[in-house]
Amino acid sequence: MSTSLTDTARRGDRPVFDNGVSAVPVRELTPTGKFTPGLPYELFGLAPCSPAIGAEISGVDLARPLTDELHQELHRALLEWKVLFFRDQRLTPIQHRDLARWWGTPEVHPFLPKADLPEVVRLSRGADSPAVENVWHSDASFETTPPMGSILRAVHVPDVGGDTLWADMAAAYDGLPEDVRTRLEGLCAVHDFTRSFGRRLGPDDLARMQQKYPAVAHPVVRTLPESGRRLIYVNRIFTQHIEGLSGQEGRELLEFLYDQARHPEYQCRLRWRADTVAFWDNRATQHYASGDYYPHTRVMERVTILGDRPQ
Ligand SMILES: [Fe+2]
Fold first, then answer.
1. DSSP per-residue letters across 262-284
2. Model confidence pLDDT, tens digit, residues 26-36
3. 5-305 maps to CATH 3.40.47.10
4. Where in the chain are the domains?
5. How far is the CA of 152 from the centre of ligand 1 (A)?
């Protein structure tokens, strides 16, 4: 018989209160990896937003072509801080797409509406189309090779509200009780678009897209090749079940893993202004866009960069 997660928390390295609630372990959170934390950045200013995730970059104009040196240093910052914020960036859709090309091939998203270019997704929310991004997720994990990164630009934002939060899923993995980490070894979970984007499709289109994007199994814990960091890679929107676990056991384990993104210790939060750009490592993080601005309007444009098969 399997061990329940409550038993795990009681026995594990998480403080547990009398009512059974377990707290996140208090420990040092650092942006660790092979990319030596604390190494200085020469080509821009960098101000961390939290101990482990999120940094605001200053002194960079993303509308101008990057240099190899600037690209390399921004890439190091992205791996170290997982999400970078840039203020006052007036990007055309072409400049937005061309920025993404420094990191790889911009994706043409199979479902979302586009802005002028096929690679630029336009996300327009308001009274007529309420937000649906207020669920923790990583973008397009239903793909065989999900995006390595997403670059999101604010076109129009409400006076207040509509913040986006990101969670560091490597820090969340590090904070798991030891025996949960052991249980996750070798497990794979199935990801599928059917219950999210598939709900908008008629039967014929759904069948066609399911053939093109069949459900795919990814490791529950993936390792980033550049840093060797291990991280939780399941999310509430696209993950369906864990292979080889019974329904209840798998659901309980997934719920526990999904909930890790909710701990503020692993998060940073961005208050948008028009022309703010956020660039996140879509492998290492999950994000959540607060829907608190309804019925006001929030318009964003996004380019995602194709990634590798999770390992
Ligand atoms: Fe997203």
1. G-GGGEEEE---TT-EEEEETTT
2. 777 766 554 56
3. no
4. 5-305
5. 9
